[in-house]
Amino acid sequence: MTTSVAIIDYGMGNLHSVASAFAHVAPDSQIDITSDAQLIANADKVLFPGVGAIRDCMVEIRRLGFDTLVPEMIKGGKPMLAICVGMQALMASSEENSGVSCIDVLPGFVNYFGDDLRDDQGRKLKVPHMGWNQVQQTIDHPLWQGIDNYSHFYFVHSYFVIASNAQQVAGRTEYHREFVAALSHGSLFATQFHPEKSDTAGLQLLKNFMDWDGRI
Amino acid sequence: MSLAKRIIPCLDVDCGRVVKGVQFADIRDAGDPVEVAKRYNEQGADEITFLDITATHEGRDTIVRTVEKIASEVFIPLTVGGGIRTVEDIRTLLNAGADKVGINSAAVFNPEFVRQASERFGAQCIVVAIDAKKVSSEGEANRWEIFTHGGRKPTGIDVVEWAIKMADYGAGEILLTSMDRDGTKDGFDVSMIRAINHVVCIPVIASGGVGNLQHLVDGVEQGGADAVLAASIFHFGEYTIPQAKAYMCDQGIEVRL
Question: In the CATH hierarchy, which top-level class contains the domain B6-251?
Fold first, then answer.
């Protein structure tokens, strides 16, 4: 049977990249970019993306009712992948836009990297954290299958997640400080990086997600 | 673990073909952009930049189709620049699969355009491309000025002040090209890169003048660039991307291998 993937569209950013990456790793799958709650609830797999400012994202997420649908689907064991601001939106709150409360499925917060950052040799560190950085896999997970530990993934973000439950951390990265690169909670896997822009390592993660039944 | 310095091959595209003008010589055909992009992706390029140098309106639709084709096969960040003047131009390219757009002369004519674009699409996809030449004389303090029209028209705008302003207006990244060095193979203008890097907190991509692998290292080590862009050394097979990365790695620079 054809696997269906719903890419949740709440009007923020461009979802074509992630759709074409899915089409590349799973050419026989049915991929919908949609804000239709029914279609999302019926899909085999769900992608929860996010780009841009968290306040604008949360306004649209609430308006479309995804703040209740997303936690329900996670509770129901549906395989879900959250990316970038999609992951941040699942935390309790973010300090972006002078403080925004988020969906609060995962305990933890979203903080700003800071201004005028320097590395230990005194060289300037730019914000956003933009480019390829290594991810240390902190747990075994079906989504890490076939991906070397410390592989590079593509990041673009100025805010990072602090997880209150260390057991949910699936990957870590370092930029000025150590931060959460990936989280795992039941049938939910979330990444701060963009697998759809992360070359072979990212495509392998997306393929693993397509092959995953949501169980760890 | 730290953030890798990016190596970005740049494709000048004219009417659907990759071209590269070699100074004082004719424009050499360097192939089909989709094939070239795939080759660089397989070699491990960290990002690919296209500069659309097509002059005609009809030709401009070609770049959109080219970006669509590349974006369905290449899964690393793609930046497209050249002739972008309106919010609609940006939307079309992002929808075609570009991750970032480069804004150059449109920013000079109307700086507010950068602010609008950044608010609309997010700073992460707005690259402000700056073409500059050194205008200070020997013995004077270094001073560079923005030039438009392929380096022919001076604008009177100081490059350091301009970079600060563009970062303030919401640029997510600066692509800094030395028009003095472009095509010369004499290396980057590292003092200009350093001057810009000193005043902005957003990533700076060094461009213009790469002739050998040590130049890439100099851009990072001396200029402080976050990424290095080159065209002809890669297009005509003088060096491959793995060679460039191996060389940079040997010099102690963090790269994605």
Answer: alpha beta
- All domains in chain A, ordered by first residue: 4-211 (3.40.50.880)
- DSSP state letter for B57: H
> Chain B: residue nearest A201 by CA?
B75
Residue ranges of the domains in chain B?
6-251
Q: Is A52 on the interface with B (CB under 8 A)?
A: yes
Give DSSP secondary structure letters for B112-171. HHHHHHHHHH-GGGEEEEEEEEE-PPTTSPP-EEEEETTTTEEEEEEHHHHHHHHHHTT-
Instruction: Note which residues in 115-144 of chain B have CB less than 8 A from chain A.
Output: 121-124
Which residues touch B182 (CB under 8 Å, ≥6 apart)? B151, B207, B208, B209
pTM comes to 0.95
Tens-digit pLDDT profile for residues A155-208: 999 999 999 999 999 999 999 999 999 999 999 999 999 999 999 999 999 999
CB contact under 8 A, A115 and B172: no
* A51 touching chain B per CB within 8 A: yes
The one-character DSSP state at A14 is: -
Here the tokens at position B16 are 């659907």
ipTM, interface predicted TM-score of the complex: 0.92
